[in-house]
Design a protein that fits this description.
The chain has 15 helices and no strands. By secondary structure, it is mostly helical.
């Protein structure tokens, strides 16, 4: 009989692995528009908007389709192999962008990256499976802090590296970081033997239906997670395009600072939002955050300088950092323990679809009507999110 898995040791290794992996992704991908413009020679504004939308959205579409498949394979063959697969897939597809010569080649690699990576979902599943039930919430918060910190530091370092060495080497460096991220998983992380599925238990939908109103609440919350991802990714793409218009070749550094500010504020918000939810409740907290997010995105329409954009993006990160973990916590509280993995799998697909749709909406509208109009539409989507949260969700049961 094998000794029990040390979940704390797993968690430490996975924290470093996820920090390094997300650092590797955010080290490179915030600068796609600049790479398409400066390295691939797409200077026409409309063409740049369209190729930015395609490159930004196609990975989300691939991930939305592939995530359920990888989830089934993870239940069958183990979650650790799926995490290693996601990091190797990400390392190869990110690093090979170094050799890209045309926008079409970039779009193809982005599609393959979405289909083969997905480190956050894989790490979350592994932590949730190996951690004692009474410590799962805290453990997932630790993983979230690694993701937020990597997202905050990566764009800053990547922006500076892009200015010094060029974006091609930044993508190559991102691939190397993802390969390094695999090492603690391969060497340190252990997984318990898989147990055969008990087919005598009720199905997932039957378990959820045992809680009145849970199906509707979960549908609204999963939809909200997808919609807030649309708003966030569209805003990120449009911020880069606006910075290119304002500061030209200095956009790499400004983009890194803006996304770094968003990552830091999002990390702080993810830790502190529970103080507010304990006082006013989940629904009021996330609804107010969505309204303020709409106002912040609307302010970007008339932002006169790069400094104002950096501040506004930092505020948007603060609000995004409250909405995402709060709605995820509500999903966890609404879902029976036996159905957690399946429900969060659907949630991961919704988020991935948001990654596909957001850049497509933002870039498509920017190409036809201009960046300011695209930002205005994105602000409107944030207001729709606030309406969905206010009218479609409920305070989750806490026991």
């Amino acid at each position: 009989m094998s000794p029990p898995v040390d979940w704390r040791r797993n968690l430490v290794a996975l924290w470093f692995a996820e920090f390094t992996a997300i650092f590797g992704f955010s080290f490179a991908f915030p600068f796609l528009s600049i790479f398409i413009s400066q390295d691939l020679g797409v200077h026409n504004a409309r063409d740049l908007d369209l190729w930015t939308a395609a490159a930004g959205s196609v990975s989300g579409l691939a991930m939305a389709v592939a995530s359920p498949i990888w989830g089934v394979l993870g239940d069958r063959f183990g979650r650790k192999p799926m995490l290693i697969r996601s990091m190797v897939g990400g390392a190869i597809t990110v690093g090979v962008i170094f050799f890209v010569q045309t926008p079409l080649q970039l779009v193809i690699l982005r599609f393959l990256q979405g289909a083969t990576s997905g480190t956050v979902a894989a790490a979350t599943a592994l932590v949730a499976a190996e951690t004692p039930r009474n410590r799962v919430g805290w453990a997932l918060g630790v993983v979230t802090s690694a993701v937020a910190l990597g997202s905050a530091v990566g764009p800053v370092v990547g922006g500076l590296a892009a200015s010094a060495f060029g974006l091609r080497l930044v993508f190559l460096g991102g691939g190397v970081l993802l390969m390094i991220a695999m090492l603690p998983v391969l060497i340190v992380v252990r997984e318990s033997p898989l147990r055969p599925r008990d087919r005598s238990r009720p199905g997932v939908l039957a378990l959820i239906k045992q809680r009145p109103g849970a199906v509707r609440a979960l549908a609204m919350l999963i939809g909200a997670q997808g919609l807030v991802t649309v708003v966030n990714t569209a805003t990120q793409q449009l911020v880069v395009l606006k910075l290119i218009e304002l500061v030209g070749r200095a956009a790499s550094t400004a983009t890194g600072l803006a996304f770094g500010a968003a990552g830091l504020s999002s990390s702080a918000s993810a830790i502190g939002y529970t103080t507010i939810t304990r006082r006013v409740g989940y629904v009021r907290t996330i609804t107010l955050a969505a309204i303020l997010l709409a106002a912040t995105v609307a302010a970007l329409v008339v932002a006169p300088s790069a400094a104002v954009i950096v501040i506004a993006v930092g505020v948007a990160g603060l609000l995004y950092g409250a909405i995402v973990p709060a709605t995820a916590s509500m999903i966890g509280l609404e879902t029976p323990v036996e159905a957690q993995s399946t429900v969060f799998g659907f949630n991961a697909s919704a988020v991935a679809f948001g990654f596909f749709l957001g850049p497509l909406v933002g870039g498509g509208i920017a190409a036809t009507s201009g960046v300011p109009n695209a930002l205005a539409v994105t602000a409107g989507l944030a207001l729709v999110l606030a309406l969905l949260l206010a009218l479609g969700t409920r305070e989750p049961p806490t026991r």
